């Protein structure tokens, strides 16, 4: 990547709409086309530049000086367009503004700070799996009964939310992640509830709404210490509610889907439950629950001979990078013997997911609880839910064989 003027060069173009239903439902064919077309492809429909190869996606993610987030990580360019809600102080900020909120959340969500949650989450996971097997028997919906139910039970408690209105969390997350795409039918479908859901989420971010010992109150305590301002605190709490629920629900669903379609890998996990964490990361690589994010060029920049003009949007296909055959051997295979580290499913660089340890702890609890009780998972008719950013599920009906 250089900042030198571009030589004469024919830039590959594509008129595909990555946010069209067919590509959201099954993104791999488009990903393959984009990777094969070249290191940079001009998407004419939106006048944005697409990066789909691992090498370029990784390089752009770690170069925040050239590829900024503060102009929005969706299609909307905050230099010209008004954001639909006040921008995130983490996801949609560049240094130096990004530094303090990031430092505060990094500490609150770091592995040592999460240690005290481990035993409780494991107990909740064991009870949940027991209840599902007792109440539903061998057939249930692994999306609703496990992948959604578990995070929705433990995460709002960990943040310190009250008991009312928690059913707003998934629709709010769905809406926020749709909003990174174009104003298509998915965004229009959310419009009716947008004001109501935002009002509810914003109300939960107030100090009085939060219990005394959760992530939320620790964010407010950081403001009391002067590590953040009191105006910033509620927006940092909001980041947890926007980025921490749907991502994990669909990440867990991706993992259960991976195992249901790869019985040999499930057997391996049952024999060696200590592989749960690496299995979750491999599922995040293989399915990429967060499929895409944008950046904005802060200067004219040349990538592999292609000039990207200052101020234009760059669409990074995390999902395509995570299956790039130039980086991953047998990239399309879900494989517990692989080392998935280096995948960009949690991003990379200064914005790399600050909640990834929370997600891994949830996954470890649920997978080990399930592996102790179930020796085989068979999928019947899975149904996708479409979202502009999240690779999502509507249903994962399974039949299981108890261990
Ligand atoms: C950032 C994915 C779970 C909070 C990110 C980014 C990705 C991501 C790709 C980078 C965005 C960028 O570079 O622009 C995921 C996935 C998850 C997950 C796949 C689950 C499987 C969580 C959880 C939390 C969380 C549980 C909260 C506890 C955040 C926040 C950011 C972020 C606040 C912004 C960080 C920054 O900009 O500095 N996540 N995430 N995420 N994530 Fe996650």
Automatic annotation (TrEMBL):
| Cell division as UniProt keyword | no
**Which Pfam families is this protein grouped with?**
p450 (PF00067)
What InterPro entries does this protein's entry cite?
Cyt_P450, Cyt_P450_CS, Cyt_P450_sf
What SUPFAM superfamilies does the annotation carry? Cytochrome P450
Q: Does the keyword RNA-binding apply?
A: no
**UniProt keyword list:** Heme, Iron, Metal-binding, Monooxygenase, Oxidoreductase
Coiled-coil-forming residues are: none
Give the protein family.
Answer: Belongs to the cytochrome P450 family.
- What this protein is called in its record is Cytochrome P450
Q: Which organism is it from?
A: Streptomyces coacervatus
- According to the entry, what is the taxonomic lineage of the organism? Bacteria, Bacillati, Actinomycetota, Actinomycetes, Kitasatosporales
């Amino acid at each position: 990547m250089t900042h030198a003027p571009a030589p004469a060069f024919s830039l590959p173009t594509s008129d595909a709409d990555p946010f069209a239903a067919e590509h959201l439902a099954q993104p791999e064919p488009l990903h393959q086309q984009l990777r094969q077309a070249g290191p940079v492809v001009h998407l004419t429909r939106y006048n944005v530049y697409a990066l789909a190869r691992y090498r370029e996606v990784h390089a752009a993610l770690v170069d925040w000086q050239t590829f900024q987030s503060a102009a929005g990580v969706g299609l909307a360019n905050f230099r010209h367009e008004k954001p639909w809600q006040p921008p995130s102080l983490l996801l949609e900020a560049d240094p130096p503004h990004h530094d303090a909120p990031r430092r505060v959340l990094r500490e609150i969500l770091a592995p040592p700070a999460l240690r005290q949650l481990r035993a409780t989450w494991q107990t909740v996971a064991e009870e949940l799996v027991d209840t599902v097997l007792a109440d539903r028997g061998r057939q249930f919906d692994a999306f609703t009964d496990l992948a959604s139910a578990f995070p929705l039970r433990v995460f709002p408690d960990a943040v310190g939310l009250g008991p009312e209105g928690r059913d707003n969390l998934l629709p709010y997350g769905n809406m926020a992640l749709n909003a990174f795409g174009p104003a298509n039918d998915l965004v229009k479908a959310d419009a009716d509830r947008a004001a109501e859901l935002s009002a509810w989420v914003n109300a939960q971010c107030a100090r009085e709404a939060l219990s005394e010992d959760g992530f939320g109150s620790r964010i407010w305590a950081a403001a009391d210490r002067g590590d953040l301002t009191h105006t910033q605190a509620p927006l940092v709490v909001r980041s947890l509610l926007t980025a921490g629920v749907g991502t994990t629900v669909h990440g867990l669903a991706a993992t259960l889907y991976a195992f249901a379609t790869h019985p040999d890998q499930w057997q391996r996990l049952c024999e060696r439950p200590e592989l749960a964490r690496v299995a979750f990361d491999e599922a995040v690589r293989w399915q990429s629950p967060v499929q895409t994010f944008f950046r904005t060029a802060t200067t004219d920049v040349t990538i592999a001979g292609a000039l990207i003009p200052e101020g234009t949007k760059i669409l990074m296909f995390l999902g395509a990078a995570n299956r790039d055959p130039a980086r991953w051997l047998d990239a399309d295979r879900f494989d517990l013997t692989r080392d998935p580290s280096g995948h960009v499913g949690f991003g990379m660089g200064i914005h790399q997911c600050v909640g990834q340890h929370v997600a891994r702890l949830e996954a470890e609890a649920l997978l080990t609880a399930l592996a102790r009780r179930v020796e085989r998972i068979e999928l019947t008719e899975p149904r996708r839910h479409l979202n502009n950013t999240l690779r999502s599920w509507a249903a994962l009906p399974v039949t299981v064989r108890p261990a």
